[in-house]
Amino acid sequence: MRERSFWFALFLGLMAMALTACGGGGTDPAVAGNGNTAPTPPEGPDPDPDPQPSALDTQLLAALQGRNVDTPAAPPTPATALVDLGRALFFDKLLSGNRNMACATCHHPTTGSGDDLSVSIGQGGSGLGSARVLANGVLIPRNAPPLFNKGLPSFDQMFWDSRVRRNANGSLVTPEPALNGNNPTASDIASLLDTALAAQSIFPLTSPAEMRGDPGENELADASTNLEVWEALMARLVGTNNGTEGGVSAYRTLFQAAFPGVVDFDAFNIGHVGRALGAYEDLTFRALNSPFDQWLGGDRTAMTDAAKRGAVLFYGRADCFRCHEGPLQTDNRHHAIAVPQVGPGREANGDDLGRFEQTGDPDDVYQFRTPSLRNVELTGPWMHDGAYTSLANAVRHYDNPVRSLQNYNTGQLSALMQPLVDTDATRNQARADALSGVLRPAPNLRGNDVADLVAFLEALTDDASRSMAGEVPASVPSGLPVGE
Ligand code: HEC
Ligand code: HEC
Does position 438 have pLDDT exceeding 50, yes or no? Predict the structure, then answer.
C-alpha cells in the first residue's frame, strides 16, 4: 500500500511539472505562485498561436481535394443609380396591385432575406416576418427562398422548380412565352433582363396571391395578360404620355438616373424594373466572407473544431457534397429527398410535385432544386415548404429520409401550419419511392455527427448578413409605409 501511494505521488508530481513546462508556466505570473492571487492577463499576442495546421486541418484539406470549393469571385459592382432605383422598388408596396405588399414583405433583410415562415403569407395578410399574420389572407404554396448570392452567374435558374431560367446565350425560359427563346416577341423587355435574378423579379408582380391581387380589386389584377399587368405598373411608376399623366415624379428621376440613355418616359418598360431589382438584390445580398471562406483563405483559426469535423463529414462520409457541391454548396440540379409536404401545396389535393410540374417527366416527380447552403443558419424554416423549423432537424432528416418522412414531428410547426401536413399514406409512399439514389443507402449519422454538421453549416454564415437592418430605407417614393 505505502509503496503504491509513493509511486502515485511521484507520478502526480511529474505530471504537474510536465504540465507547467508545456504551458510555459515558468514565466506566466498566473502560474508562478508569487503570492499575488489575482491573475494578470498575459500581454501581447496569444501565447499559443499554433501556426501549424492541426491534424483536423490536415484531414479537412485532404477531404477538400478535388471538391472545387474555393470562394467564388464577386461579380462586378452594378452602377449606384441602378441599385438606388432597385432599392426603392424592392421596398415599395406600390408594386403590388392593392398597394399592400413589397418584395421585402417576404424577402426582408432582417429575416435572412426570407420571412421566417414555413410558407409565405400573401395577399390579405398583415405584418412582417414571423410576426406576419394570415388574417383573411392567402397562404403561398412554398417557402420564400433566400436571395443570398443569387446574382452570381452560376445561379441561372430561379424558383424551387427552376421555372425561370436564363441560358448562357441570354435567351430566357419563363412562364411568359413572349419573353422566351432566341427571338422573343417582347424583345424590348427580354433584352434588358441580364440575369436570371432580373428575369425572376417581374413574375411575383403577375401572381394574384403574391402581389397582383384578385380581379375587381385593382387595375393590375384586372389586366388580362402579363404584358398588360406590367404596362399598368409602369403607368403607376413613371406615368403615361411621356410622364405627363400620373406616375410618381421621384420614380421618373430615379429611372432617368439609372438609364440615362432613355429619353422618352414611355420607353421605360418592366425590363428596366427587373434589371434594377436584379442589380439591387445582387449587390445587397452578397455573402462570401464566412468563417469557411476565411479558413479556405488560410486562417486555420476561423473555424471551430466541431465545424471542421462537420466539414470533413460533409465532404466525405456523409456525402452531402454530391448534391451540395462546388463553391456555393449546390449543383443547381433537382433531387427528391423525401421531404414531408406542408402547407396548401400547388396541387388541388395539397401536393407539390416540384420539378415534374415544369417538365412532365415522371423521373422529376418530387424533385426540388438543391438549395445553396451559404447563410443557411439565417434562412429557416428549411426545405421547399419549411417543413423543418430547426437546422438540426433538417440535417437529421438525412440520417434516414424515409423514416424522417414517416415519423415527421408536426409539433415543430406553427399552429397555423400544423393542420396542413399531408399525411396521405399513398402520397408519402410515392415521396419515399422517389428518393434519390444518392441517398440510398442514406449516410449513417451517429454520435456527434448531426451537431458537427450543424456547426459546419453555421460556419457558412457571413457575419455581415446577421444584421442588415441598415438596408431598410426610411421611406420609398410612393410614400407608402415601409416598416410594416
Ligand atoms: C408573398 C410573398 C412573396 C413576395 C411578395 C415576393 N416573393 Fe419572391 N418568392 C416567394 C416564394 C414563396 C418563392 C418561391 C416560389 C416557388 O419556388 O415556387 C419566391 C421566390 C423568389 C426568388 C427565387 C429565388 C431562388 O433561389 O430560386 C427570387 C429571386 C425572389 N422570389 C425575389 C422576389 C422579388 C424581387 C419580389 C418583388 C418583385 C418578390 N420576390 C416578391 C415569396 C414572395
Ligand atoms: C441527393 C441530393 C442531396 C444530398 C446527398 C444532400 N442534399 Fe441537402 N438538399 C437537397 C435538396 C434537393 C434539398 C431541398 C429539398 C426540398 O426542399 O424538398 C436540400 C435541402 C437541404 C437543406 C435545407 C436548405 C434550405 O435552404 O432549406 C439543408 C440544411 C441540407 N440540405 C443539408 C444537407 C446535408 C447536411 C447533407 C449531407 C448529410 C445533404 N444536405 C445531402 C439535396 C441533397
Answer: yes
> Which ligand is nearest to the Cα of residue 333, counting in written order?
2
> What average pLDDT does the segment 119-145 reach?
93
State the cell numbers at 27. Answer: 514565466
CB atoms within 10 A of CB 45: 7
Angle value at C-alpha 343, between 339 and 346, nearest 5 degrees: 90
Name the CA dihedral angle for 447, 451, 453, 457, rounded to a multiple of 10 degrees: 180
Q: Output the CA torsion sign for 276, 278, 281, 287.
A: negative
- Other C-beta atoms lying within 10 Å of the C-beta of residue 185: 13
Residue from 95, 101, 113, 140 to probe ligand 1 pocket by mutation (most atoms less than 8 Å from CB): 140
Could you tell me the three cell numbers for 4?
A: 503504491
Of 324, 341, 368, which is best to mutate to test ligand 2, by the most ligand atoms within 8 angstroms of its C-beta?
A: 324
Residue 483 CA to residue 102 CA, distance in Å, equals 11
Is the distance from CB of 118 to CB of 313 less than 8 angstroms? no
Q: What are 81-127's pLDDT values in tens digits?
A: 999 999 999 999 999 999 999 999 999 999 999 999 999 999 999 98
Residue type for 228, please? E
| Type of residue at 329 | Q
